[in-house]
């Protein structure tokens, strides 16, 4: 049986973990599976940071070569998606994270580590955190932005 992959998101003070999330929508609230229209981001503000991890379960020998990047989705004026790899969890806020703009190609993708800091996962468990944040400028138009596609690639042995 191959490994089973799912995204997990952590939120709130003390870290409430939700496995198998349905979306990575950004918003003006620290919650999982956000409906963006319910929690819009004001132009010139940032979304709450999202702390996500990959969770692997099932029967496998090794998960390795884990990479994360944005593969599709155009930015509107003054909009950027920032990402930090292998970060520690902190209570999410709207304060700018200071992370770099998320890579947009596999060749420049973020290398993601296992929760123990190694480059491989050998038993069911999580990766280290990927911190994401949508940052907007005062020139960002109101309304929905283009959908983005994030890729998490790995090799399974």
Structure characterization notes:
This protein has one domain (4-156): Sandwich (Immunoglobulin-like). It is built from no helices and 11 strands. The protein has strands at residues 4-11, 16-19, 50-57, 63-72, 79-87, 100-101, 110-111, 120-121, 125-126, 129-136, 149-156. The strands form 2 sheets. Strands 1, 2, 3, 5, 6, 9 and 10 form a 7-stranded antiparallel sheet that branches. Strands 4, 7, 8 and 11 form a 4-stranded antiparallel sheet that branches. The chain is globular, with a radius of gyration of 16 Å. It starts with a strand and ends with a strand.
Structural class: mainly beta
What would the principal axes of the Cα set say about the shape?
A: globular
Quickly count the domains.
1
Rg, nearest Å? 16 Å
CATH topology: Immunoglobulin-like
* Order of SSEs: EEEEEEEEEEE
Instruction: Please give the largest β-sheet.
Output: 7 strands, antiparallel
DSSP strand (E) fraction? 35-45%
- In angstroms, what separates the terminal alpha carbons? 11 Å
- In total, the number of strands is 11
Q: Number of helical runs?
A: 0
Which range best describes the helical content: under 10%, 10-25%, 25-40%, 40-55%, 55-70% or over 70%?
under 10%
